[in-house]
Amino acid sequence: MPPGQRSPHELDNGLGYYNLTLKTSDGVAIKGWFMFQDHMPRGEESTPTLVYMHENEHSNQMRLPLFNYLVHQCHVNVLAMAYRGYSESEGVAHEAGLKKDADAIMDFIANPSVNPEISAKLNTKMVFVHGKGLGAALAIYMAHERENLWQGLISENAFTAVRDVVEHKYFFGEHFSWLSRNHWDNRALVVDLNLPILYIAGRNDGIVPYEQTKELYDLSKKVNFKN
Predict the structure, then answer these.
(1) What is the full per-residue pLDDT of the chain (227 aa) written as tens digits?
(2) How far is Cα 202 from Cα 209, in angstroms, rounded to an integer?
(3) Domain boundaries, the chain
(4) Which CATH number is associated with domain 8-219?
(5) Which pTM does this prediction carry?
(6) How far apart are CA 191 and CA 214, in angstroms?
(7) Among residues 155, 116, 152, 125, which one has the least CA distance to residue 139?
């Protein structure tokens, strides 16, 4: 990993962070960062926290420019945990296991007092969950399981279900082989959601067709605000 892309402390621009390790219900240690700006314009009590659920490709180290932008330009805290089998986290990725990882993250959001440093900066009444690709499936799961934790859901490049993406000609590749053995049926979950949702999709996306995210948007009929 090149300098500047290994950990937040290498970004010499005031990006503060705390390392965080969470234990899942099946004993897997997942690792990540809680990132913040030392002097947030809104003040700590009024600063939202974004829980970022990452896509299938790359490591969280490669996402540092994005996290840096979110903290300094959007003025939010960012909690980014690597799923099992990714970055420095233990274990092997599979659908049931990744949902346990998501459960551990939600348990922490519900009770961050286990880490006093992070708890002092995390307003539990101003937390949003943002997922991209595979992370969008996890974010939808998290919104469905514990809707009361979130002020809103940001779903980026969300697929309807893995079986639908498998049929898309650009899907196959070594980075996605394990996903084809899982289901991730987002259609079945979004119909129950009743929190603000922002759907983000691109018509030229080479992996997740725009139409799949649009279908999820159309199925989200209970949502009181969506865009």
Answers:
(1) 444 456 676 665 668 999 999 999 999 999 999 999 877 777 767 899 999 999 887 778 888 999 999 999 999 999 999 999 998 999 999 999 999 999 999 999 999 999 999 999 999 999 999 999 999 999 999 999 999 999 999 999 999 987 776 665 544 444 555 555 667 899 999 999 999 999 999 988 877 889 999 999 999 999 877 66
(2) 8
(3) 8-219
(4) 3.40.50.1820
(5) 0.88
(6) 13
(7) 155
